[in-house]
Amino acid sequence: MASGLWWQYGILYEVYPRSFQDANGDGIGDLQGILRRLDYLAGLGIKGIWIAPFYPSPMADFGYDISDYCNIDPIFGTLDDFDRLLKAIHDRGLKLILDFVPNHTSDQHPWFQESRSSLTNPKRDWYLWHDPAPDGGPPNNWLSNFGGSAWTKDGSQYYCHSFLKQQPDVNWRNPGLRAAMFDVLRFWLDRGVDGFRVDVMWMMIKDDQFRDNPVNPATFSDSPDSVRLLPVYNQNRPEVHAIVAEMRAILDSYGDRLLIGETYLSFDQLATYYGRNLEGAQLPFNFHLIQTPWKADAIAAVIKDYEASLPPGAWPNWVIGNHDQPRIATRVGRDQARIAAMLLLTLRGTPTMYYGDEVGMTDVPIPRGEVQDSAEKNQPGKGLGRDPERTPMQWDDSANAGFTRGKPWLRLAADFASVNVAVLSRERDSLLSLYRELIRLRTFQAALHGGSVREVASNGPVLRYERVEGTERFAVLLNLSAAKEEAAVAAGRIAISTHMDREEAVEGRVLLRPFEGVVVDLD
Ligand code: NOJ
Ligand code: CA
Question: Which of 77, 192, 206, 377 is deepest in the core (most CB within 10 A)?
Fold first, then answer.
């Protein structure tokens, strides 16, 4: 049975609340909808549910622009709905992770309303205000991640926003702001939540001298604005670690809680977010499987480099999808999505799944007139929009895939009648069945959820590694190519194949079919 801490052996699952299940027929997912689908999640065998923001918000960035940190947006429900959901999650032995967005608020948040009201307002310093440059322009060259300058003029000064102008960045150097943000953590911890995923953790604090960022020599004329400069002075600043450690200390004062960071960083940088003495985040998200070419040698290198970069005692984690990235089945194709599932669920470290990936949901092209995401609206046609990976969960083949009885806020995939939970649950060898089996195997085999990873290598298109705990040993062999491949393996028995049709004994060698992966239980 599973051993270790719940967030080490357990699997995390991201729910994007607008798109999971609508209960009241307005076409937008809600908390009661999630409640209705909890048995599905429990049955899948995951442990922790991370729900993207559901707080009151003008929805300029679909909830990542928060106007009240301690309430529920009426679109999603009420605090009573929340308490019921949390209890139901705990009743099933599951954990709830909330999304905490400490880098910025909505421009409609009362804090910002006060802050912008005058130069002398006590909350003026809760945000990053700055006088114009001598020419009247923005104070420096920092860029917004959604395009254009990171500065917007409001009255006689500019305020900084790393994202939309409706998302002003707060000032973590101000003790009042700091205390108010920490109170938000306590508010939810007091209600019983099990942890937080911290939005853009690495961006929380900026250079106190507001120095210009250097030009990025590696960009092209069609590169998105946000990468034209190297974010030396507005991201990943050394002072960020003290904030993370304070967050962690608050969580620890409540006992067994989990701090996750959203951290798009190199392995060296990622390692620093665990804290010098592991007093930082327990899981700084590792997004390298999203960013690495889908090639056996590249992935082998990522596994080795990541393992080598981890500070002593740090626990690894892996992510293959989230609400900001093209879906895995679109990135690597349907066949490779099975390989990706086996990889995610057999590597060392906590896996995070993204809703719908377990049924092979793909990106849904959204016609221009139906675009919802500001990232697309601000810089159209650059492929930056995130609507395609946020379409409604495909539950069954009824109208709107069982997601809503109303009009869904985003159109559904054209293939939902065949690609959905109900249909795939009936097929013994479906992707969903593969996920269930892999999760079961991982949960029951200590070597798979807790063991070391060894012998990481690639041989042509075959990626291989072993997982070892005591005398238990598994070999994982993944053929990332469309051709048959023969791979050497010690004596053992195939515990599971991505094709879900073989459990035979092997000795010396195994023939892998196109895009087939196997986990071999070694004698
Ligand atoms: C990261 C979130 O995942 C993304 O959806 C959001 O737009 C930005 N942070 C800003 O909060
Ligand atoms: Ca609804």
Answer: 206
The token pair that represents 280 in the structure block: 């930082």
The 3-class secondary structure across 460-482, one letter per residue, is CCEEEEEEEECCEEEEEEEECCC
- Per the annotation, the verdict on 503 as an active-site residue is no
Q: In this structure, which amino acid lies at residue 152?
A: T
- Choose among 288, 294, 298: nearest CA to 340: 294
Q: Could you tell me which of 367, 368, 430 has the C-alpha nearest to residue 394? A: 430
**Per DSSP, which regions of 297-337 are E strands?**
317-319
Does 199 qualify as catalytic in the annotation? yes
> Would you say 128 and 103 are in contact if contact means Cβ atoms under 8 Å apart?
no
Q: In what order do the strands lie in the sheet with 283-284?
A: 283-284, 258-261, 195-198, 95-100, 48-51, 12-15, 350-354, 317-319
From the number of C-beta atoms within 10 Å of its C-beta (0-12, 13-18, 19+), residue 61 rates as buried
CA distance 480 to 457: 13
Instruction: Quote the ligand 2 centre to 30 CA distance (angstroms).
Output: 5
Whole-prediction pTM: 0.98
For tokens 């960071």, name the residue. 261
190-237 pLDDT tens trace: 999 999 999 999 999 999 999 999 999 988 878 888 788 999 999 999
Distance between Cα 145 and ligand 1 center (Å): 9
Helix (H) or strand (E) holding 44: helix 38-44
What is the sign, positive or negative, of the torsion defined by CA atoms of 299, 241, 5, 196? negative
Running DSSP on this structure, what letter comes out for residue 309? H
Atom of ligand 1 nearest to the CA of 375: 7
Pocket test for ligand 1, best of 59, 101, 163, 260 (most atoms within 8 A of CB): 163
Could you give the CA distance from residue 434 to residue 432 in angstroms, rounded to a whole number?
5
CA pair distance 396, 425, nearest whole angstrom: 10
pLDDT tens digit sequence for 75-123: 999 999 999 999 999 999 999 999 999 999 999 999 999 999 999 999 9
Residue nearest to atom 5 of ligand 1 (CA): 324
What's the burial of 199, exposed, middle or buried (CB within 10 Å: 0-12/13-18/19+)?
A: buried
